[in-house]
Every structure is written in C-alpha cells, then in structure tokens.
C-alpha cells in the first residue's frame, strides 16, 4: 500500500486537496461500485446490502489514501478512525437514503432506457455520497490543527 501512496505523491504533489480527493475517489469508487453491481446484478442481493458492502470496501481504501495522501493528516489514528466511520455512516445513509427515496418514489414514473431505477439510484447516491464525504473528511476527520497545513 505504501508503494501506491508514494506513486500518487510523486505524480500529484502540486494538486490541491479537492483534486487529490477526487483522484482517490476514482480508485475507491471503481472498487466500491464494481462490488455493488456484482452483488446486486450477479448475486441478486438487495440494494441496501450491496451498497453497504461495496461502500465499506471502498471506505477502507479511502481512509488509507485520504489520510496519507489527500489530507496528509497527523491526527491520531484512533480519533480520526472513529470520526471517519461516523462521517462515512452519515454520508452513506443520507446519500443513498435520499437517492432511494427520489428514484423509487418521485422518479419512478420516468422511463429509463439504459439502466434500471435501482442502478440510477446507486449512481445518483454515489454522487451525493462523494460530496458529503469530502466535506466531512476535510472538516471533521483529517483536519490539521496548524494554520499552515490548512492552506491546500
């Protein structure tokens, strides 16, 4: 894992924390969404079980890369780990709950040609999750106490 982190650091040093967060997000989102769709469509698992397991796998990658690469946090592992879990859970339930409500209720009459409503709900929920998760991680989980560390 340290090799992956050092590779990211060498190529992306001049970028700001949002760009680094989005790049890390691409990695963990590809992993998480792949697991979600395989579980949902390949194994017939429910929306909630599939999204929960897929996001949990992506969250492990997210914590390691965001702590070391995106925010370069010096916060204690225990404290930042507990805050990370709280932010992930809040972001998960708020984002996927809102998305499920929208796509299974308000937008159910809309005819989608390429994907199902459940798949659209997963994709929309992933977008909401990314936004809420970024702000939670930046301002609650990996916040650095020094003024000079907060400028990126």
Radius of gyration: 17 Å
Mean pLDDT: 85
Q: What percentage of residues falls in helices of 4 or more residues?
A: over 70%
Structural class determined from secondary elements: mainly alpha
Our measurement of the CA-to-CA distance between the termini, rounded to an integer number of angstroms, reads 24 Å
Q: What coarse outline follows from CA principal-axis ratios?
A: elongated
Number of helices: 5
Main sheet summary: none
Would you give an account of this structure?
The structure is a single chain. The protein is built from five helices and no strands. The chain has helices at residues 2-12, 17-42, 47-70, 77-106, 117-141. Helix 2 packs antiparallel against helix 3 (47-70), helix 3 (47-70) packs across helix 4 (77-106) and helix 4 runs antiparallel to helix 5 (117-141). The longest helix has 30 residues, at 77-106. The radius of gyration is 17 Å and the shape is elongated.
Features:
152 residues; mainly alpha; 5 helices; 76% helix; elongated
Set out the fold topology.
Layout: H1 2-12, H2 17-42, H3 47-70, H4 77-106, H5 117-141
Helix pairs in contact: 2-3, 2-5, 3-4, 4-5
Structure summarized in a few sentences:
The chain has 152 residues and is mostly helical. It contains 5 helices and no strands.
């Amino acid at each position: 894992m340290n090799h992956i982190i050092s590779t990211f650091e060498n190529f992306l040093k001049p970028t700001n924390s949002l760009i680094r967060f989005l790049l890390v997000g691409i990695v963990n989102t590809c992993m998480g969404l792949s697991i979600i769709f395989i579980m949902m469509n390949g194994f017939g698992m429910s929306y909630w079980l599939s999204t929960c397991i897929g996001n949990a796998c992506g969250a492990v990658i997210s914590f390691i890369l965001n702590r070391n690469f995106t925010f370069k946090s010096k916060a204690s592992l225990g404290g930042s780990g507990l805050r990370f879990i709280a932010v992930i859970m809040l972001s998960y339930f708020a984002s996927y709950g809102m998305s499920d409500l929208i796509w299974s209720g308000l937008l159910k009459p809309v005819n989608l040609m390429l994907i199902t409503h459940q798949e659209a709900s997963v994709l929309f929920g992933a977008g909401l999750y990314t936004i809420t998760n970024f702000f939670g991680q930046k301002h609650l989980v990996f916040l650095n106490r020094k003024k000079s560390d907060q400028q990126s």
